[in-house]
Design goal:
Number of domains: 1
CATH superfamily: Ribonuclease H-like superfamily/Ribonuclease H
Shape: globular
Strand order of the largest sheet: 3-2-1-4-5
CATH topology: Nucleotidyltransferase, domain 5
Number of strands: 5
Order of helices and strands: HHEEEHHHEHEHHHH
CATH class: Alpha Beta
Length: 237
Amino acid sequence: MSWLGRFLRRPPSLASNDAAALASYRAQAQPELNTTLSAQRVVVVDVESSGLDPYRDRLISVAGLAVRDGLVRLDEGFESVLRQEQPSEEQNILIHGIGGAAQREGRHPAGTLSAFLAFAGKDPLIAFHADFDRILIERATASVLGMKPDNAWLDLALLAPALFPKHAASARNLDDWLSLFGIENHARHNALADTLATAQLLLAVLAAAKGLGLATWADLARLQKDQRWLNSSGRVV
């Protein structure tokens, strides 16, 4: 690689506290993924973005909520808006409710993302349609931190229909699954409120998985892989 290529690939310069948070994250060991999920800390994640294309649109906010010992830990939450040079379009703002001023006055992206990694650690991350959240977070961290997190991910949009197959045809999105289990969300498309509702759905999924003898992240990762294959092959579950 030429000196110019090495220069262009240099990691971004970070404030000392952000660099320290990133170094702490990188130094952590991966958790044992054969441990029972109910006995370890996992982090439910939700994001808001400038659009529906995770490969092109911008990450606007990120929220996380810990689930540990079978409980949603309301005292272990994270939410932050990333400062935007240009706010998203008005139609987009009407969806997530993060106005132009709030976007322009948000936290510096490096500060937000390093703080999020410090909060989440290397614990497994769980979301509904997790690839959307994962890609947006990975693009943002690659851009402002010069790295991509290596946390394991689980997707409730795959696990819920696999564990509740009789509802798979009728429950097509997060709102459907929340309604099915009587989970209320009073601020839909607010990242932290969506995270709380998704965490409650996770508890129902974990209970169903346990009833089938599926207790670890590795168990659910295999189930998720099978469900993804079934979806891609067009098979009826």
